[in-house]
Amino acid sequence: MSVRSPSRRAFLTGIGGVTLALPILESLRQTAYAQDATPHYSVFVRQANGVCQESNGEPEQYWPSALGPITSSSLAAEPDRAVTELADYADRMLLVKGADFAFDSNGCGHSGGGNQCLTAARVSDSPSGAYSLAEGESIDNYIARMHSQNGGEPLTLYTGPRGGYLDEVLSYRGPQDRRSAEDDPWNAYQRMVGGDGPLDRLLEGRRKSVNDLVRAQMKGLLGRSDLSKADRDKLDLHFTSVREFEKMSCYLSEDEEQAMASMLGQGTLNDNRETVAKMHMDLIAIAFACDFARTATLQIGDGNDSTEFTINGERLPSFHMISHRIYGDGDEGDPIVGAIEMHHNIDVLFLRMFRHLLEKLDGYDLLDQSVAVLTNDLSNPTHSFRDIPYVIVGQGDGTLKQGAFVDGGGVTHNKVLNTLITATGLRTASGGPIEDFGDASLDGGMMPEMLA
Question: Under a CB-based contact definition with an 8 Å cutoff, are residues 417 and 139 in contact?
Fold first, then answer.
């Protein structure tokens, strides 16, 4: 029998490397945290280079014109604002401004912002600059290690070039322990469904249930003398549920698989950025629908995202240069005519990609019990760490306010992250909200303006 029991879960390994997550078995594991019985899912999508908020003499083009309630009609009435792209989700959306990163960068704003984005942790002194690291774990890691799905690991995805300079910035297991992200949807998909080779081999494997591929391990586990009757009943129900999940939603269509396989190795190309991001979003939705993972991150673009997006048939300059408003990655360069409007259009494009994720989650009837977040590692084109934007859709466990645009008034963003963690159904051992995520020096608690 091969039952692996790392510190946070147990799972079976079968033919072809197929893995099957097990439910929490009280005979084998105890959790230190209370959890809502209903599964809640969380996904964090990251955009780079800030958004077109009012700053440095530039007009507001991102947020609604007024704080307070938002509706589909109120958003649609302001077509010049980027968030209008999500008007259909207004009644399930929470827009949050007025939350700041607590710490300065260490020689590179992009790296410093990325390091803090999901960690609320300090930025390392060594290494420093573009190679600096976060001194704490990220929210996705915190959530995932409380659950057995996917080995207690978050689903960590990426689309962008790789040059060894400002690649992944988001997901951390702990201090200076950054997690690598998968940039090929096809590779991520094969790991999820147990494939390890060409498409025809994967399709052949689909004719068998995962239960069939781990049957020997299942028998060995059920033969353990230290399992209680309650745990045996739980496993029986789990194996039955796995087979039912496979029938419902755990695979892409063959056409989708063919399209994904054809993109292998091409995710770093400018022209594929949107396509690959949407494929990753498809995987996130399937992973949640099959309970393969409870949380995921998707980083779109590398650390200072120099993608050359094509919008309305026009190939734009580097997004990073657009965010500087000049043909240059530093402080010097000729002005880019129309850079503000270009940046606004890129904001709209990111919201449109995010809408694709919302549509997928909604298609699986998971959006309302999920927390889907679009955020940034900078606030605006001046590369500020003040007023980081959060677009949040879904109520999770009911903690979050919906249909509202709120302002935290300059709170440190660990309070936003505490609120989001609590909205996934996690509680302290005594049943209280999570209020201590992030650097220990920060004032704890949640952000009251976000609460229902």
Answer: yes
Rounded distance between C-alpha atoms, residue 372 and residue 351, angstroms: 12
| Residue labelled with tokens 């509706």 | 71
Relative orientation angle of helices 229-248 and 215-222, to the nearest 10 degrees: 160
| Pairing between β-strand 314-315 and β-strand 370-376 as defined by DSSP bridges | unpaired
Strands 390-393 and 370-376, by their bridges, are: antiparallel
Nearest to 189 by CA among 279, 312, 82: 279
Helices (H) and strands (E) in the chain, counts: 13, 17
Distance CA 196, CA 287 (A): 18
Give the 3-state secondary structure percentages of the chain, helix then strand then coil, rounded to 5: 35, 15, 45
The span from the first CA to the last CA of the chain, in angstroms, equals 47
211 SS3 class:
helix
Determine the Cα–Cα distance for residues 46 and 417; give it in Å rounded to an integer. Answer: 14
For 384, 388, 392, the CA distances from 56, given in Å and listed in that order, are 11, 15, 26
What six digits make up the tokens of 166?
């400002």
Name the architecture of domain 35-184+267-450. 3-Layer(aba) Sandwich (3.40)
Instruction: Report domain extents, the chain.
Output: 1-30+207-250, 35-184+267-450
Q: pLDDT tens, 340-371? A: 999 999 999 999 999 999 999 999 999 999 99
Total Cβ atoms within 10 A of residue 142: 23
In this structure, are strands 41-47 and 177-178 parallel, antiparallel, or unpaired?
Answer: unpaired
Nearest 5°: CA angle at 390, between 77 and 399? 100
Comparing C-alpha atoms, which of 105, 119, 120 is closest to residue 178? 119
Quick: pLDDT tens for 151-182.
899 999 999 988 778 899 999 999 999 999 99
352: exposed, middle or buried (Cβ count in 10 Å: 0-12, 13-18, 19+)? middle
Q: Radius of gyration of the chain from Cα atoms?
A: 22
* 267 Cα distance to chain centroid: 18
